[in-house]
Amino acid sequence: MRKNILPGLCISLLVFLVSCGPKHEAEENIFRYNEMGDVTSLDPAAARSFENIWVDNQIYNGLVQMGDSFHIKPCIAKSWDITNNGTIYTFHLRTDVYFQDDSIFPQGKGRQVVANDFVHSFFRLFDGRVSDATTLLNDVDRTYPGTIQGLSASNDSTFIIYLKKPYAPFMNILTMKYFSVVAIEAVDKFGLDFGEHPVGTGPFKLKNWVHGNKMVLAKNSHYFEKDAQGSPLPYLDGVVISFIKDMETSFLSFIDGKFDMVSGISAINTKQVFSSTGEMRKEFKDKFYLQRVPFLKTDYLGFMIDPTHLRDKNIVTTNATIRKAINYAINKEDLVRYLRYNVGIPAINGFIPPILTGNKNMKTVGYDYDPDKANALLNEAGYPNGKGLPEINIYIPDDFSPIAQHIQQQLQQIGLKVNIQRERPAVLAECVVSGQCYFFKKSWVGDYPDAENFLSLFYSKNFTPEGVNFFHYSNPKFDTLYEHSLAESNDSIRNAEYSEMDKLVMDEAPVVALYYDEVIRLVNKNISGLPIDPRNSLDLRFVKKKLPE
């Protein structure tokens, strides 16, 4: 595959990127950013990581898209109807959407998108060999008569999905990149390698990709969306993505003007950019602007609380009273202020991020810093001042070490000895899923903007290793509320149920919610029109780059 790509890359870089023409490459109408992670596939069926999703967002479109304030907007579907008590979703498609030009089509010209393309694209998602979205389609009625696994195209512009029962978050789920339309001709030709040869409908198309080095996207001149004035999108001519793994090298390249944006606290030199109070230093304000919004993400410490799943039957964290003491012993305000330069919000109001409807008024009472309560709870559990408590291991990823040491010191103050066990992310993930890490650091990013997505971690039918209930938390009252909320169409009732579930989780403390994260970016001042949203998506359709005169 790489032998086929490299000749094209050389030609493309000469014509499109390299400074052999009248302009230096930094002066071209091209958006550049660095990806410190790995893009593993450009098949939207594998759009699980931010690295993949950011590129997929440029190449593909779905039925609907997420607008401001989590309002669902039309995309390829211009309208839709939800009937039969919320079990039949009928989408009416635009007729002016075409796949990107590609050699798989006659004369290389992309053809019109029709409803059958969505049938094929969704049908692929049932296949666990290619899809990370199989569980998201559990409620599709795959036995519905006269359909293809619960999917139907009654004509070229009408696509229908049949559900087994009402599922309130379903429209939010359809905004995810998994549910993009793909060209079946490309899937048939490339099979499981489709992720290397993507063909979608988006504002940009893949030009070249050298794994671990560089990816080039070119403008799709036939893109169907226009701006409010009727001008065609996108404004940019292309996108170039580099893959520098070292944070300092990446950040220095951004400072030198080689990249237009740097995103995330792990990619920004926070000591250099921010003051101790989290304010952006003046020398950076002159050249860059800061983007910052609440993130659909909760960082937390989790406990495996199911004693039948533990090799060591003497683990004291199966005791809810001790888990509550640990919650009260950690100063989350100081953690965010001093270790994260005020990036994030201390999580003292439950597990659900406050930006979501279920916790938007911060009604859920969680745990603030109260060492006296922590000591009282240890005394109640039979361990006054921590006397007699065995040592506890906390399993963390390498980059969490400074915060883990802060937590370790605070737990020692109530007499709880903690050993820090650093693990590679993949090893830690396996340890947590297998239930062998009984006290661990993780985070949860909302796949879609509904509090149900966060509460799914505590549903008893989602026990690991099959599901995402890493704690093996089980509460019949929680399960009843959770199941009812999925079918509840009244937002006020559903939100009240979400808040009640969040309170149940806090009362039994299978987690220590540490902070609700923020999306944070530094952007060069020559870039305008770059939106930022709580899902941390990258949307380059409206971006303009001011070039030197």
What percent of residues adopt helix (DSSP H or I)?
25-40%
Number of strands: 19
CATH topology of the largest domain: D-Maltodextrin-Binding Protein, domain 2
Largest sheet: 5 strands, antiparallel
* Strand proportion: 15-25%
Radius of gyration using CA atoms only: 25 Å
- Terminal Cα span: 40 Å
SSE order and pairing:
Elements: H1 2-17, E1 30-34, H2 50-59, E2 64-66, E3 72-74, E4 77-83, E5 88-93, H3 115-124, E6 151-155, E7 158-162, H4 170-173, H5 184-190, E8 204-210, E9 214-219, E10 238-242, H6 247-255, E11 261-263, H7 270-273, H8 282-285, E12 288-303, H9 320-329, H10 332-339, E13 345-346, H11 371-380, E14 392-397, H12 401-412, E15 418-423, H13 425-434, E16 439-445, H14 451-455, H15 476-487, H16 491-508, E17 511-524, E18 527-528, E19 544-545
Parallel strand pairs: 1-10, 14-15
Antiparallel strand pairs: 2-3, 4-5, 5-7, 6-7, 8-9, 9-10, 11-17, 12-16, 12-17, 13-17, 18-19
Helix pairs in contact: 9-11, 15-16
Question: How would you explain this protein's 3D organization?
Answer:
There is one protein chain. The protein is built from 16 helices and 19 strands. The chain is α+β, with helices and mostly antiparallel strands and 549 residues long. Helix 9 (320-329) runs antiparallel to helix 11 and helix 15 packs antiparallel against helix 16 (491-508). 41% of the residues are buried.
